[in-house]
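Preliminary data (for renewal application), beta-D-glucopyranose complex.
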Amino acid sequence: MKIQVALYAAVQAGLVFSQTTNGTETPSEVPYYGLSPPVYPSPASNGSSSTQWSAAYKRAKALVAQMTLEEKTNLTRGVTGSCIGTTGSVERLGIRSLCLSDAPDGIRGQEFVSSFPAGIHVAATFDPDLMYKYGVALGEEYHAKGINVALGPVAGPLGRIARGGRNWEGLSNDPYLAGIGMGAITTGIQERGVIATAKHWLLNEQEFRRTNTDAGEAMSSNADDRTLHELYAFPFMNALRAGAGAVLCGYNRANQSYACQNSKLLNGVLKTELGFEGFVVSDWAGQHSGVASANAGLDLVMPDGGYWGDNLTQAVTNGSVSADRLDDMATRILASFHLLDQEYSYPLPSIYTNAQKHFAVDAQSFDHAELIHQIGAAGTVLVKNVNNTLPFKKPRYLAVYGYDATVKASPWDNYLRFGGGYEVNFGWSTLNGTMITGGGSGSNTPSYVIDPFMAVSQRIAQDKGTLRWDFWSENPSPAFVNAEHCLVFINAYASESFDRTSLKDAFSDNLVNNVAANCSSTIVVIHNAGIRVVDEWIDNPNVTAVIFAGLPGQETGRSIVSVLYGEINPSGRLPFTVAKAESDYGTLLNSTVSSDYFPSINFTEGVFTDYRAFDREGIEPQFAFGYGLSYTTFEYADLTASLLGTAAGASAGNSIPDSSVAIVQGGHPDLWDTLAVVTCTVSNTGALDGAEVVQLYVSIPAEDTPVRQLRGFQRVGPLAPGEGRRAVFELTRRDLSVWDVVAQQWRLPRGEFGLFVGASSRDFRVNGTITI
Ligand code: BGC
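Predicted structure:
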């Protein structure tokens, strides 16, 4: 009987049992791939999450009550304008069009805007405060340009596969790190009055056949219910909790149903379980049906009406879509607009194509250049530094090699490569020059670039030194044998619309080895749009220092010079695992390739991606998740761990949140209660000032759970030599829970939780436990 009840609940939850199920397995043991159960009707929202949402809904509802059917459908219909997307307006009621634009790392295709570091670079800072400031700065620029809706931040792709083309747009494949970033960036953007859009919802993990083509339908990412919650929806929860006004549904299919017409994901997980009050916008041409997408919970289609427009009016007239559903769509769009108070003096869009003669509004007058420099340096990860090669001690003679040291490609290069198929150019791309961000719609258009060569030249000039360079040869000759150090700049490019075919390239690897053959202090700087393996030369004794410099944005040269010369002591950490060999990523290396008409990707690894997989398989990484060096050393001591009173309440009864408490945006409010506090001291035991990224990993006492998962981090410092400080981590109920597929809730397991505090996912300095 018990099993039958469990089975019934599991089937309701969308769990699919294989034919071989023998009735004794628990649902979490049974693989579930590829069915998206129907969840109807679409829940109409009413703003009960907060007083702000409630006030916004009051205003939105009052407007919708005055609108005709056509006016409502018009609001949900994206039109082509100067913005990447524009909503319909209702002039009679003073309802303006909303302007939606890319990118998550800066406004693309415009003048007098900044090129910020990409998401993955921001994650490498492991600094929530910088993540927040990044959001604020983006918000300031979007606001100045009159863009109502910023198309970011990104938590999907999360980074399931190492070679994913868009992993760099998001923060990290670790859902906790990505989640903290999603929350902080959303808060920052929205504090400046701009609607943030968490994207791409959900399971949008590869570019190969990401959408429908002549070959057939889009890939279906098939994930079991627990994985869906614990990995992929997890970081979106933080953005929702921070009040995100919009969510963008992806191109892919998820459990066999297109993301923009997937009632389980939109009506179910997003709007019911996570209480989302804002609007769902389709990815561009990501809508695949009219009535089905409306009923499944899509609220706004982009671009150009998709299957809606007059068809939606007709569908409501003939009852295929209810009038209430349409009211809810229009209300949600207007509620987000009002949540951000955009009706009061929000600037009109100032977005132009380059061919138009125009007056360009200045979004560059904020001092974002310095913030970009700081984030650029803070997200720079030093992984090898033999004999204290770095920081430089005023070298007088340096040699610079490699195509990545200088600007070559024009910001329009990508536009040309993509055949001009987009309204607005695709921004910065750098197959042949220094790389400051990746390619595709997540790219940005720098107003200028301080490239590494420029910045190094300036420093050498100050020191009255000599610089030699060769940017383009694979085997530079002559070797400048008197140089004290040789800097080799290489990159690893990735872009929307294709997945990577390798995590290294022969030209760059040869270049490093060729330089190192003649230079006993070769320093490699990699600008990497995701993972880059270094097996071809990492053990070369002449390679004395290696830096993962990420995607730092327009101040790239300033950031790297600050780190090389020690003005900023590196504290950046890898937001992914760097394997010894590409094959170590196993099935999570490549995108799934299929010529089926209905192709599928089965997420058979469940929650075991990246370091979770390396830990389970016992694979030694080259550089572990969370790894990064400093020019000083730190000592950890005195771990304390205490349970708060909330923990007893949370573990009472069946250890799931009280179902009588109303859901608010972000999910059950109790999930965000702090249950435990962990602290430890960190002291600078070296000779230089520096900040340390202290990480807390937790082992949750539940079956099929990763051995350790990141559940806290803090960038402590800068600390002066001898100075110590306490790092404090608050563990929320969600941080300690697992998704229970039968209860359809987060369950707090009882037992002993292991606490591991240290400098990476493989370097623990103080340990402890809590028992719940
Ligand atoms: C991308 C989105 C982007 C949109 C508008 C799509 O191709 O997937 O991330 O916001 O285009 O440019």
